[in-house]
UniProtKB/TrEMBL annotation:
Entry's Gene Ontology cellular component terms: cytosol
Record's catalysed reaction(s): 2'-deoxycytidine + H2O + H(+) = 2'-deoxyuridine + NH4(+); cytidine + H2O + H(+) = uridine + NH4(+)
Positions of the CMP/dCMP-type deaminase domain: 5-132
Name of this protein: Cytidine deaminase
Family per similarity comment: Belongs to the cytidine and deoxycytidylate deaminase family.
EC number: 3.5.4.5
A Pfam family recorded for this sequence: dCMP_cyt_deam_1
Amino acid sequence: MAEEIPWERLFEEALRVRQRAHVPYSKFPVGAAVLYADGSVVAGCNVENATYGLTVCAERNAFAVGVAQGREKPVAVAVVVDTPEPCPPCGMCRQVMAEFAGPDIPVRSRTLNGQEARYSLSELLPHAFTRSFL
């Protein structure tokens, strides 16, 4: 399925929405884009808050918008960051991905200079807490 995923489109959307990130404290804008089985792409950026605990990452925002839009079956996630090396999603984002996607969903992170890292969710979160434990 990786050949069918329009990675460049996903990275373009993540890069576009990254420009809208609200990051007055960290100065660390992140953009993310999620591809769904129906071909739709939902993008999100990080939104910080003066009470840091209320900050929401780009990946979680993209998934939340997907839920609000009634999207189902995410099939790929792309993240864009301005770091020397690609930055994987944080632990909270990984757990949110596990709520909506299977362990084999591909996740890619790309820097502004084009360096890219490729993962599966199971590599990022090998022992996810899922509904099977409830």
